[in-house]
UniProtKB/TrEMBL annotation:
This is Adenylate cyclase. InterPro entries: A/G_cyclase, PH_domain. It comes from Paramecium sonneborni. Residues 997-1106 form the PH domain. GO terms for biological process: cyclic nucleotide biosynthetic process; intracellular signal transduction.
Amino acid sequence: MLTKNDNMSLLGFVPALVVQYLANQQQIAQLPEKQNLRSVVMFADISGFTNLTETLSKLGNEGSELIAFAINRYMELLVSAISKSGGDIFKFAGDAMIVVWPPSIKENVLENHEELKVICRLAVQSALDIQSKLNNTTILEDIKLSVKIGFGIGDINIIYVGGVFGRSEYLATGDPLTQAFKSEHHATSGGQIIVSQEVFEMVSDFFVFQKLQADFQLKAGAQLIKNRLSGINKQQIMTFIPAALIPYIEIEQEKWSSELRRITTLFINLGIDLSDADSRLQHIQKVIEVVQKCIYINEGSLNKLLMDDKGSTLIVGFGLPPLKHQDDPIRALLAAQLLVKQLSLINCKCYIGVATGVVFTGVVGTSGSRREYSILGDAVNLAARLMQLAMTENKSILLCQKTAEDCERKIDCELFKMVQLKGKSGLIPVYHITQQKSILKIHYYQSKMGFNQKGFVGDQDKIQYILNIVNTFLIMDRDGKISLVDMDIERDFILLKGSYGIGKTFVMKILEYQIKTDNQKVLILESSINSFEKIFKGNGFKTIIKQIFDIALSKTTYNQIELLISISNGNQLVQKILEELLDINEWMNDYVNNFPNFQSSSNTNEDQMMKSIGQAIVKLFEIYFEQQLPEKKKRLYSQILDDEIDDINSNDLSSDKIDVPPIIIVLDDMQYYDQLSFYLIKTIIKKFNRILVIGITRDQFWEIPIISRKGNSRNPNRNQELIYDRGVESIINLYNVTPNEVIIKGIKNIQEQKQLLLLYFGFENFSDPKIHEVLHLKSCRQPLLLIHLVRTLLNNKYLIKENDCVYASQQLQTLFQHEEWLQIEIPQICQQINGPIIDSLSCVNLLLLKFACVIGDIFDIQTLFKIIPFKQINQNKLLMALKQLVQQDIIEYMHDDNENRYYRFVTPFMRECLYQSMTYSQRRSIHSLVAEALQIIPQPYEDYKELKRLEYHWSMAEQRISIKSCNTLIKFSHKAKKSLIVKQIQIILKTENNVKAPLKKGYIYKRSDKKVSWQFRYCVIDSENMILYLNSQMNEQTGILPLKLISTIIPILDKSDDQQQFRLKVDVSNWVKKGKVKGNKRGFLFAFENEDSLEEWTIFLEFVKAKSIYNDFVENFGRIQLPINLINESFDPQLTIYLQEMFKGSIKRFRQQNVTDQLSNKNRKSTHLKQQQLQIIQNVSTNFHSPNNNSKRLSVRFSAISEQEEKSDDTPLKEKIRKFFFGSFAVLAYHFLTHTFEPNYIILGQEGRNMRRLKKSRKHKNNIMQRIPNFPSIVEFDIQ
């Protein structure tokens, strides 16, 4: 049952009418089901949305977020007015909404009719209120929105359909919706309200109308049902909510579910009338079931099902969480093709528009009230336009150029036409599908990536090694050294391995090109499975079987069925399995109808069945090699020479006289192959010497279909990994098989990187050689990733090519200085690699990573815990989540100190993928939190670097984008300026050793003593005084204001006609003029050129004044700190204690190991605690530094850790404290001596050189270290 919190969260995603029905019914027993009611319907469509999306789409990825922001803001205003009249937001449809007013529940018919009149009047009145307040409302800069409203009334049907994978859909149908849609279409502009004839008859006596063609134009606080409900089945409600949203709802963080994602959107128009629910309910249920199955088979997400002004419409997304894949556009087109085919079998035509791009995905609606999970953006609008174009052109599927390019590897698409679409400037290329590819083609690399047949840079020795094996095989076959029955010759099996994106497939394409160039007669069969084929038996060998089956058909006079019967020896079960492998006899229909519970014929007696299938496949290859042909034969092979035909008789087909070319089988994506595929590969290698098999596989990343993830295995990839390992092992263990494993490692050095750039971009050098080093590091030696990365930098003007010179833009140089890539659009290949990994994470782990990625490539646990605003994530959850992420190799543990722990990201571009998936508002809020935390928590960076990091985070937090200019603007807030100025002052004071160094200087205006005129003065602020000079030469002082004597600092914005509008009033009790002390209180008035200068000088004065007063206090009364705090106040106390305990445990374990090592090796030199176990690893980054850089102020941290294990004793507390302080100060003195000769950073408690000498001396048998007590402590000393 729903709890109180559930009532506030889950119910917001379901209309009140649906919730009411579920409360009354308790549970929907079986789908489909229908709910009847009689009420008023309003269809509200935002006017100006097309202009909004066209304008904001020019802003790039942030435009999608701003579209969602504008809709949310306007929707909130709409819902506020609607809810006052009792309306229920039934559906959000992009820029529109469908509203239904809950009907009366009175039993008397007349009373119900009168109540319906009242409801209708309230609904129409709410529409008037909306138009009076929200017409031409400015939502964003120069963007105004209005709303067109249409009304209908009558009998409404709410149908409940679907049910596949427990996901249900609800849909309102009936004549009132049709009335509302038609009425809204009659509105010619925003601000109009159109009602149907039926509504007019209800309310004509209360409002003034103007007659239109068939409708009428209108001239002239309720409580939602859901708040009165209890006892509703929670699981039933959750069937209507996307599964990806549930974890965020449970921790009450729905807003963090919003993301910017690259998805492929399908806009689908169904050719059925959903409004006729009375007579066609079962047919509607069947249609929705087929739609769900076709989408879920390809692992997409059904986002919306609605009936609106566009008809019966579906919105489907591929790449929505948690179903991100490397091939989402391909999956989308496969689903579209399957939808068209399967819906046609049940007499339902559909038209589909497909578009790919970065869109906003998240909650749309009003916070705390009605809302839905939606996808918004330019790509979604483009898909809708393509769907409408498909209906006009009577084409089943039309797609955009991006989708066509992304699918080019697997599906052939060609240009349909150039068209002008609504909301788009200029002609847009529209594509349609021609056929599905079964193999990869070399032209993919030519057309899309610019690859060619010139060669491949890197791993040339590996390529030559494979080529030698292939040439040896072909030479032996040509010379007749390999016979059809020779079983003694060694068989070759080549396995090409490498990580995703390393270029394995491209290396193979280069090899194939060279092989075909030198050996035109060789037959090359290729197999590359798509996402749809992964889940079927024999997935990896299906394509090979289809190709060899077609060749076998050409050699016989059999048709398909006759040949199947022949090779299966009449076994009907084997024949049926072969039909599945060959996609014959529409077995796919059975699969879709029985999904997800489809049982393949090959599941019965699997071992025996694999053997039978293997025998049938062997017969197909025998027919190819003409070892044995059926009696009905038709030899068509062109390689048989005319002069040899008469010498060959039907009984001599197994001889080598027939020149049948050998076969090279190339098997891509072997990491996905199932057990049957490996068995067939093994069988073919074992039976035929004239077949060379080359396998291509990954060695790092596995992507498993979601259907397989539903098992109970802790590691869903483990099962597939075992299948792969056993399959490859079974091939290698074959008699006389020689395994040749070739691992592609990519680009070895900078020189090979230069060759690759020269080959594909026409240049090899940059103006700054450091760019080569950065690219080599970021590309991880992967050639394809390097090419994608450089192409992205060139397209986005980060790298600028002029003639033969290529240099980095100013923006890229700035990012290099900050060592940040977060703002640079990452290559699509990185999103394809990391996207599925990110989507596999739990909600809490994902949120932690998003916050951590903003902190930096290296992040610490104290800062992370400080900036996380979620109350639900406590210390234990944080530590557990980080441990899980380390186990998943997403981050790695670096180092512990006594109060903090450090991690860093491992996977290339993982941090950038996480960052760019967040919305811009999320990024800014986290940057702000990080900037505030950097001021509090000690950072292991040099002062200058720390200031740059602080400035970077504030600039990212404060930047905004201008809709007019499309430029990013940065205007620091007062808080940001104050933070940066204080940091600058601290650095200057440290650098100058707290002497009177100038902290701020520049020209300002000063009001004359007689307050008549303004004087131009050069002002300098140091740590004690504000000094005024006549000029910047500073040779003549005109006044000195002691900062500690300043009483008030008041900035003034004067809007009068006076030229000096930005003024600063400073009151001081004593001041100095020309060397003379003026004892009277004086108020000074200064002026500045602009508001920013005024604010900056004000912050400087306020801080330095406080600093001066504090210094004066210390000088007169000394530095005191009571009580003594053993934990840094900037850290979280509980987390710090936990880390100290873990740190202490690691010290003990290290010492125990140290003792063991010394006993095992007496000659080993005496060792001390490794520095990297006690302080931040300095070698990780040059930005890490030693605190000893400050010679004036030395902050020393003492970690007193006992050499012995903790034991409880009865020693009085007073004695313990005495021993502690005696030991502490003694160790402190020794370490100051050590520090004199050892410049490196040494933590107190760690043995230094002098300490070790003292310990060796016999005079110090009772070493002072033995007096350190048995509990760890931290004492801070500030020495001036």
